[in-house]
Amino acid sequence: MEQLTASELKVASILLSDYPYGGLVTIQELAKKSRVSAPSITRFISKLGCSGYQDFQRQLIGELKQRELSPIELKLTEAPSTGSHFLTDYTSRLVGQMTYMAENIPPQQFEKVCELISDPSRDIYILGGRVTDSIALLLSIHLRQIRSRIYHMPSNPELWPEYVLRMRKQDVIILFDLRRYQKNLASLAHIISERRQSTIVSITDKWMSPVADHAAHVFAVPIELETAWDTQVCLVTLVEAIIVRVSESNWAATRKRIEDWDAIRFRLSGDSKEETSDDD
Fold first, then answer.
1. 32 with 129, same domain?
2. Can you spell out the DSSP letters for 211-239?
3. Which residues, in sequence order, are CB contacts of 122 under 8 Å at separation 6+?
4. Has residue 62 got a pLDDT over 70?
């Protein structure tokens, strides 16, 4: 985004507001919506590395198909082994994806989201999808030890209205959603954006969950390893980085809360130890 001109930023904003469908209209329609000229769109498409508008649309259609691929379909496009032992080869692919993520997530955005989560005046609501909710739970468990007012929402949508009604404009909602996306998470994001106007953070992949349409901040993590199964390792890496960064934003308060937390936990478990050491 930082490399785009003012006209190109208008095009990008229109595309991201309805991604990827916003790019499946004619170039004239996109120009009209963006209030720029057709040549400006052509230059924008060229910066993305596409040979033309038709090539750009072909890639968007390809992304739409990629959104819904199951492990059975991914198996058909599996990359051959490099000849190394399976674990060595697999680990090498993971390292490559984590490096890619670190180089492509804007540092300013990462810091801004950690700043929002660190703000004690904001309630933090966290929820994931069918697979990713376990990672959402990991984030919530650690954040609860760092600060108060952390809420991991239940997976049952019938219980979501209670949480939505609690949300305030200054609160932060973190939603995890990787392909194959869950429609009810997108519906939840839409309702929150419309009725509560809370800040939504979307943690998704490069095909962009529909949740991202309603998010103020989007982290698109790499999940492909060219195997039948997508990886969650980059997602966990991002979550752990957030946990550490938030904990260090006010370490004195974090330490005090952990000490108080452990004092209660040890008493509940019957352990005579009421204070933690610096090594814990």
1. no
2. GGGG-SEEEE-----SSSS---HHHHHHH
3. 116, 149, 170, 171, 172
4. yes
- Cα(177)–Cα(239) distance, rounded to whole angstroms? 14
Is the Cβ–Cβ distance between 216 and 91 less than 8 Å? no
Q: Yes or no: say if 90 and 225 are a contact pair by the CB < 8 Å rule.
A: yes
pLDDT in tens, 207-262: 889 999 899 999 999 998 877 788 999 999 999 999 999 999 999 999 999 999 99
| Domains in the chain, number | 2
* Together in a domain, 10 and 114: no
My answer on whether 52 and 174 are in the same domain is no
Q: Do 182 and 229 reside in the same domain of the chain?
A: yes
Amino acid (1-letter code) at residue 244: V
Confidence label for 184 from pLDDT (cuts 50, 70 and 90): very high
Q: What phi and psi values does residue 200 have, to the nearest 5 degrees?
A: -100, 130
The C-alpha atoms of residue 58 and residue 53 are separated, in whole angstroms, by 9
Segment 156-170 shows an average pLDDT of: 98
Is the pLDDT assigned to residue 280 strictly greater than 70? no
Mean pLDDT of 83-97: 88
> If DSSP codes are grouped into helix, strand and coil, which group holds residue 82?
coil
Structure-token pair, residue 188: 């939840």
Task: Output the domain CATH number for residue 113.
Answer: 3.40.50.10490
Half-sphere exposure of 57 (CA within 13 A, CB side): 13
For the entire predicted model, the pTM comes to 0.75
For residue 240, give the amino acid letter: E
Q: How far apart are CA 245 and CA 240, in angstroms?
A: 9
